[in-house]
């Protein structure tokens, strides 16, 4: 697995939500994505929406932003997302995953609140990230030809394919 940046590769921005300092899963996800041939710009812990916007200025080719949360405060941490999307600072899909509730449940209303902020995909299983990125790329009119990595597959529903 290579860690160096490949200008012709697919690039993603990876981070942990602003009030969250849990980075173990973040590093494992970076490893997974790099093993699938992605360039990973890992912003690390405690990343604000403003930090994401700054990263997208530096890496405009990024095809998605992946935000992890373990402390359950993703909705609060992404409160500035609608404004950033409205002004065009974030134009690629935003994917959020992890523990998205302080109570640890997966209440649909909490998902709806994240979608209302402009989150494009809520991820339940990190092993599906490459497939989700493939699907989002195709949905946006992109091509997978010439890119290493996983074949286009659908995300499992309730753990089944």
Query: Outline, from the CA principal axes?
Result: globular
Oligomeric nature of the chains: single chain
Instruction: Look at the structure and give the mean pLDDT.
Output: 84
* Low-confidence regions: 149-161
Helix and strand composition category: alpha/beta
The total beta strand count reads 5
Please state the CA-atom Rg, rounded to the nearest Å. Answer: 15 Å
Task: Tell me the distance between the termini.
Answer: 27 Å
Q: Determine the number of helices (DSSP H or I, runs of at least 4 residues).
A: 6
Fraction of helical residues: 25-40%
Would you list the SSEs in sequence order as H and E?
EHEHEHHEHEH
Strand order of the largest sheet: 2-1-3-4-5
Task: Note the main sheet.
Answer: 5 strands, parallel
Strand composition percent: 15-25%
Would you summarize the structure shown here?
The protein has six helices and five strands, in the order E-H-E-H-E-H-H-E-H-E-H.
Could you characterize the architecture of this molecule?
By secondary structure, this protein is an alpha/beta fold. It contains six helices and five strands, in the order E-H-E-H-E-H-H-E-H-E-H. It has helices spanning 24-35, 49-58, 74-77, 81-86, 108-117, 129-139, and strands at 11-17, 39-47, 64-69, 94-98, 121-123. Strands 2-1-3-4-5 form a five-stranded parallel sheet, with helices on both faces. The protein starts with 10 loop residues before the first strand and ends in a 22-residue tail after the last helix. Mean pLDDT is 84; it is low at 149-161.
